[in-house]
Amino acid sequence: MKTNAGTSRFGFAVVLALLVGLPAMASLFACGGPPAQAKPPTPSLDDSASASAAASGPTASPAAADAYAALEAKDYAKARAKGEEALKANPTDAIAHLVLGVCDEADKNVDGAIGHYEAALKSDPKNLAAAVNLSAILVDRKEFDRAAEVARKGLATAKASWELYANLGWALRGKGDHDKAAKAFGNAGKLNPKDPDPQLRRGQELLAQKEPDKEGAAKAFREAISLAGGASGDDGVLAEAGVGLGQAGDASGCATALGKLKEPSPEQLRERAVCKHVAKDLAGARADLDAAIKKKANAQMHWSAAAYAMEAGDDKACKSHLADMAKLATTDDDKAKAAKAPQLCKKK
For the chain: N or C, fewer Cβ within 10 A? Predict the structure, then answer.
């Protein structure tokens, strides 16, 4: 499961299936309902992504197994009660701590969840689910150093965890270590090759490096678009990848990707106009800006539209856009720009 921050978390059903050998269910749920979908995120970052998976955790106690059965029956109160019962019998029961950590997180008790995940890892350092969920919470809280440490320790025994690589990528991104973040997201993508998100994040990190790898970034963004289904793909992926392609210097690719959006926002239309302009499609750029202005006009959009009209030799449209810009201008800078209509809008 992914949160709004882009980090990765295990759903409760999958967590216990991984740890106790019970079959994973199709739906992912937690005590009290599903964890909030906050929208995003290794040892040595050069470790092979094909390393073997971590060993399973300890066998579940009867109470922990009952907690799982209660979840399967959607009896969340019983699931928590059985988790607490397991801890009374064994205060270091890693699976019980994990169960209660997921329940606390679902109930917005983040501090309680952190405590349970830390206890689970103390009892069982190979508890993959606890490492994934704890590192995700720490990224959400911007505790990037701690998040990276948790993810790295988890990867020391679970090198095939794309979730931990992704969360480490987000932690390193937060720390500003874009080179290593790109490697982490790259490993996540190798381990989870059908998900476009690691490719998107890798592309963004390649662009954020001190010496941007624009060619590598463009390749990652194109791969994300392909994984998202191409022209019929997810608008969110198309939008991010399209903007990324523009930043990577592929203006035509940017315009094509943003042109596939089913319902582009005014801002996305403006981004597409910029890419079309760079790709020397002035008519297309003007059309997109006009469409953006019809949806939600602002001073800056009119300023860009005036500039494009001037470039096209359309004196009337240039002056009209600057007049509209003057009406919408809220800053002294925008007002000063709008006042330059007589000098800017001249026929070629």
Answer: C
